[in-house]
Design goal:
mainly alpha, two-stranded parallel sheet, 73% helix, globular
Length: 219
């Protein structure tokens, strides 16, 4: 084994950089965030979100319906999971704070399932399980897309990946898509360019373009 191969093997086995540790971090974060939402549901304090976003959930609690909170949170979660699988970075704000902290609780409450929000220990376990699922979904997307080309290494979580610093992820998504396959790369490039001209986030256009072309030219 060469020095480069040995270094790569040690890198992949490292707890801090290996893919297998990624679901653990996401699970721990999700558990705490979901428990915070439980605190808000019971004691009206403790939610890990901006006031305007928490207000969507509060509106549902007050009887106005959970549709807005569920749609807003779930859409953020879905978008960040796709983004995380392509670039190896999961945005804590969009995926865990908004998705797990607001979107999923709103879906549960809308369906009449209140135990995970009423009981502290159940909320911890629920958040933990949700985080494990999210972590493995991100790893699965990564393995079956850009991961095959070794364009990314370990997975990570970062606050603001989809917000103020998210604009820097657009080119990374396009590069990752291009290394996965030429058609997917072209789709990502065209999608990113269209969104740029439309004054929308480049990362979103790159992801949608890669998915659209990838449906016809799978990797």
């Amino acid at each position: 084994m060469t020095d480069g191969q040995l270094s790569d093997a040690m890198y992949k086995k490292s707890f801090w950089f290996a893919d297998w540790s990624f679901p653990i971090f996401v699970a721990l974060l999700s558990s705490g965030i979901f428990a915070g939402t439980h605190m808000y549901y019971v004691y009206k304090v403790g939610a890990f979100n901006e006031v305007a976003i928490v207000a969507l959930l509060e509106a549902g609690i007050q009887g106005s319906g959970y549709g807005a909170a569920a749609a807003f949170g779930a859409s953020f979660l879905f978008a960040r999971i796709l983004e995380g699988g392509l670039v190896g970075v999961l945005d804590i704000g969009g995926s865990i704070l908004t998705g797990v902290g607001i979107g999923i609780p709103a879906l549960l409450l809308g369906a009449g399932i209140v135990l995970p929000l009423e009981n502290f220990f159940v909320s911890l376990i629920t958040g933990l399980l949700i985080g494990v699922v999210i972590g493995y979904v991100v790893i699965g997307i990564k393995k079956f897309t850009v991961g095959k080309a070794n364009s990314t290494f370990g997975s990570d979580v970062m606050m603001g990946a989809g917000n103020s610093s998210g604009r820097f992820l657009g080119p990374l998504i396009i590069i990752s898509a291009a290394t996965a396959s030429i058609p997917v790369g072209l789709g990502s490039l065209l999608g990113g360019a269209f969104f740029y001209l439309w004054n929308k986030p480049v990362a979103g256009g790159a992801i949608l373009g890669a998915i659209a072309i990838g449906a016809f030219f799978p990797i």
